[in-house]
Amino acid sequence: MANASLIPIDQPSTRCGDCQVRRMALFKQVPEDKLAWTQDYRKGQFVLKAREHLYYEDEEHGQVYTLFDGCIKLYKTLHTGKMQAMRFALPGDFLGFQGDLCNAMHHGAQALTDCVLCAFPKQAVSRMLCEHPEIATELIAKNARVMATCQEHLLSTGARSAIESIAFTLVELNHRLELFRVFRPDSQALAGTGIPMTQEDLADAVGLTPIHVNRTLRQLREMGMIYCTKGRIEIIDGARLKEVAKFNPRLIEDAQLL
């Protein structure tokens, strides 16, 4: 099923050999002199506006994506309508891939910022994984690293206090953003400082009510650790916030293999 929210890029799209995020993406293990074949698998490059959905739960979707720029929330919805954010995708992440590619999506994906994505038809991905085992190996490794991060977030929602859980979510995402900005200082979607997230997005991530999140953010703000503006949370005292979060940066640095 095509996504009407995706807008094809007018100007020539970025070629895989010139991609600034390749070191963080699925094709990182492919030698530069062999990148031309990746163009044969890619359908194109598209823009997804902030707050639009890339895909919904339980819908059939014919493509998978590499996120080139922007931030996307991956979520599931309970029967009550309550949303639980599973993780926040940043450039280099591979979206929409699941074991049963032919079936409906197990989760939804919503853009938090304007995004740019490279789209690959699912049939092409199946063929690519068969023909290029180095890509399949990297996909397995990426999924394992994503699982490790998701386990930390599960610990946040189940065992950490509210302030520890919120601090961990903010520090983890901010650390990944800082790593990304080293490679893409020209990013328009993620320009400037701070985390492109509303209090409602944060509540979805940590399993708390927006009121509880607002109260905890106010506490962190009064302690001089963060500053909140509309749609963005900026970390002021990262060292203290990491102490509250009990955050180990190797969780992210090992995952990105930087």
Fraction of residues in β-strands: 15-25%
Question: Could you describe the largest sheet, including whether it forms a barrel?
Answer: 5 strands, antiparallel
Low-confidence stretches: none
Helix content: 25-40%
Strand order of the largest sheet: 1-2-9-4-7
The number of distinct helices, counting runs of at least 4 residues, comes to 8
Explain what this protein looks like in three dimensions.
By secondary structure, the protein is of the alpha+beta class. It is 38% helix and 20% strand. The strands form three sheets. Strands 1-2-9-4-7 form a five-stranded antiparallel sheet. Strands 3-8-5-6 form a four-stranded antiparallel sheet. Helix 4 crosses helix 7. The radius of gyration is 18 Å and the shape is globular.
Offer a few descriptive terms.
4-stranded antiparallel beta sheet; 5-stranded antiparallel beta sheet; globular; 258 residues; alpha+beta; single chain
